[in-house]
Amino acid sequence: MASIFAHGLTAFAFSKSFKNDLYSIKLWSLGVICAILPDVDVLGFKFGIAYGDFWGHRGFTHSLLFACILSLLICFLFYRKKMKAYQGVFLFIYFFSCTASHGVLDAMTTGGLGIAFLSPFDTTRYFFPFRPIQVSPIGASRFFSQWGLKVILSELIWVGIPALGYIMITYLVHNSFKSKN
Q1: How far apart are alpha carbons 59 and 120 in whole angstroms?
Q2: C-alpha radius of gyration, the chain, whole number
Q3: How far apart are CA 166 and CA 54, in angstroms?
Q4: What pLDDT, in 10s, does the model give residues 136-174?
């Protein structure tokens, strides 16, 4: 898996797509939660759930259906009034993108069993052909090691630089619209 830092940074970068009428700490905080939450499945190890099971790591909670369900839930719980307006579509797309980005980043890592993107309809696990991100160890004690340092360095290149580029582009786009108005 990618680290929580990469998942959180991706959600934060996506949040910069919004103009001031929707952008808030609440918005990007919920986006970061959506981006990190699929890894709740690691708790299954404590309960004897095997890695490759439906509820195992990188299983259903990494699927596109889970991203859809979580996005609808977040919108319903935190943005119910805005869901009736056009803004609701953008909020749903944002939370869906944040949640789905988790599986996308994990499918670009060098380890694991792949991602069950289509679960529960198809539980096949997939990786992308291009897998430059070092897989992150599970557990804080293992993360703060030489392995964790390699993970952070690969994520700086493959997630940090694109996220910074995206933030800069959205900043320029937003400012170009301000200057025209």
Answers
A1: 9
A2: 17
A3: 34
A4: 877 776 776 777 788 889 999 999 999 999 999 999 998
Please give the Cα distance from 155 to 30 (Å, whole number): 22
Report how far apart the first and last C-alpha atoms of the chain are (Å, whole number).
44
* Whole-structure pTM value: 0.91
The encoded tokens of residue 171 equal: 């900043």
| Distance, CA of 2 to CA of 108 (rounded, Å) | 8
Assess contact for 101 and 92: CB atoms under 8 A: no
Question: Of the candidates 131, 136, 167, which has an alpha carbon nearest to the alpha carbon of residue 153?
Answer: 136
* Among 97-101, 165-169, 173-177, the least confident range: 173-177
Identify the pLDDT of residue 84.
Answer: 78
Collapsing DSSP states into helix, strand and coil, what is residue 24? coil
Give the CA count within 13 Å in the CB-facing half-sphere of 102: 34
